[in-house]
Amino acid sequence: MLPFFLGRYQLRFVRPHLSSQLVKQIANAGMPAFLNNVAGRVTSVLLNAALLAQGGEDAVAVYGALMYASGVVFPLLYGTCDALQPAVGYNLGARRVDRVIKIEKRIFAACAAISVSLALAMLVFPRELTLLFMSSASESILAMVGPAFRLFSVAYFLRWLPMCTQAFYTAIERSKAASLLSVFSVLVAPLVALVALQPLGLNGLWLNLPASTLASAVVAAIMLVRLRRELRGEG
Predict the structure, then answer these.
(1) What does DSSP assign to residue 173?
(2) In this structure, what is the dihedral angle of CA atoms 99, 101, 105, 111, given to the nearest 10 degrees?
(3) CA-to-CA separations, 205 to 51, 149, 191, in angstroms, rounded
(4) Do the Cβ atoms of 114 and 73 come closer than 8 Å?
(5) What is the pLDDT of residue 234?
(6) Residues of the chain below pLDDT 50
(7) Is 108 exposed, middle or buried (CB count within 10 Å of its CB: 0-12, 13-18, 19+)?
């Protein structure tokens, strides 16, 4: 905070000048992330209820271990996606569409590498990851961990795509499309998968994220292809 108080730099505290248009822009920019969090909590509650009904407390504990493992990687993905936004916004405003596409490719590649690394870790070290977060896990939980982690891990081969696409659309001020993709990814697709995979029992619940992620990735890919054509047309 010292540079602000010394007043020696161009960046300094000033009295805010808010307008209805500015507040609307701020709300639009934050809406995709807001809806993502709200919808994600609703989905988690419903999935936990289904897990409790299908597999009891052990299934909920295994799901918790899966979320712990995801929680290590998600901040990296969110941070990388957030880093994309200022650079994309600046270059788009400067009409440097070529640089926008280059930034997009690099950020998407970085998130893909992070996400795939978690998928491989889940595939190869399910027991070790569980013990890392649940050192006192019972044998019944550890017996359930292998299939759960391996099925769940499939999602992370594609999990990065809808996340990056949402961030990219937010960066270019396409908040409505970003919000729709967010709600589809974390609420609509998981709930449809929850109903569709119900006959598979507990395995259907472990496959919920892979199935919903696949659907979200397809939608995100279609959106990206259309957007890429539009941006090249503008460039």
Answers:
(1) T
(2) 90
(3) 7, 12, 11
(4) yes
(5) 60
(6) none
(7) buried
Tokens representing 10 are: 């161009």
Three-state DSSP state, 56: helix
Q: How many residues does the chain have?
A: 235
Q: Give dist(CA 20, CA 98) in Å, integer.
A: 33
- The owner of tokens 């795939």 is 116
Among candidate residues 128, 164, 123, the one with its CA nearest the CA of residue 32: 164
Neighbours of 54 (CB within 10 A): 16
> What one-letter code names the amino acid at 204?
G
User: What pLDDT score was predicted for residue 147?
Assistant: 85
- Report the distance separating Cα 62 and Cα 75, nearest Å: 21
Nearest to 166 by CA among 183, 149, 190: 183
Handedness of CA 104, 105, 111, 116 (dihedral sign): positive
The residues near 51 (Cβ < 8 Å, ≥ 6 apart) are: 59, 60, 63, 202, 205
